[in-house]
Amino acid sequence: MNLLENIREGLRSIKGNLLRTVLTGLIISLGIMSLVGILTAVDSMKYSLTQTFSSLGANSFDIRKKGGNNRGNQDGRAGKVYPNISYEEAKKYKEMMEDKARVSLAAFVSGATVVKSATEKTNPNISVVGVDENYMLNNNINLETGRDFSTFEQEQGTNVAIVGSEVVKALFKNQDPIGEYITMLGRRFKIIGKLETKGSSMGGSSDRRILIPLETGRQIPRNGNSQLNFDIKTGIYKAEELNYVMGEATGKMRSIRQDPLGQEDSFEIRRSDSALQSLEEISGYLKIGGSVIGLITLLGASVGLMNIMMVSVNERTREIGVRKALGATAFQIRQQFLIEAIVICLLGGIVGIMLGIMMGNAIAALIAEGGGFFVPWLWVFSGLTICVLVGVVSGYYPAFKASKLDPIESLRYE
Known about the structure:
By secondary structure, this protein is an alpha+beta fold.
């Protein structure tokens, strides 16, 4: 019997015991589905979030005041309070770095803001951000309609605004918002642009954001006379210069902020891909967990397959005796049963891979928007390889036992 004949014989045996084959294949399918499904979900979410980080500018870094709210508590002691980054400091940094990078300034003017049109008003969930001329470019924010702020509007601080899609949906249903007026923060603003819809990935929605000129934001009175805190984003023209420019920016900001020698920075510099690096670490743990779950399921499936193959050997003892009497060698008998085990595993594995890809993409779509349909070819081929290995491991002992049967005793077997 050659290899092709052994494959045909294996398929005939599978067809003859269809129910047993289906049940065994389902066990294999569940193991592969859990393995491929979890890994597909992780890779799909990672791909979606990587696209989000890329759109935020991979070759850039942010400079912010250290400590966030600066109300941390360490060992029972209040954390050190650092001053906000002032407009003068941010502007000086921008002037010093203009030859080496594209610097944008932004200030969070107000959150939980109610915005009104002539007839409608929003929920108190709109954020207002003051931005300069480089903000949209550095953050890869695009306009759907309208225009960006002019140089005159930036310098004079005029009351114009660029609004997100949810603001438009709430205030101007089925109406072009360009040229319309909105009221917020005690002022009346003219809408000159609408932002592209971004969705709510990464825990927030830029669609509920309103951009105003930075100078306008500086003119709006603050509660308690608190000062604006400016965030600085530095975009690098050449990716290979990122670390060098970050080091130079640290030195310049220390000088601008007058941080004493030997004292820690009063600001923090964060690369735009630092969160992605954290995501890599988290996804690694998820992959390990998913692999363990899938492999445990496959271990149970392999034990079940081995048991079924042992039963098959006992049922076909006379058949083995006939084959040996007709000249089949021990190697050919072993090959026949191994192929049968591998084919069962592959059939179950193919079904499991398809189910796993669909399950993984469905999970990823629920958690991270905008990822599209993702096919993890690495895990597809890995799943098929694992199926073959399970088939070989589970089928070898039954095949070995079958090949060692005595042909005379086998022919007498009832």
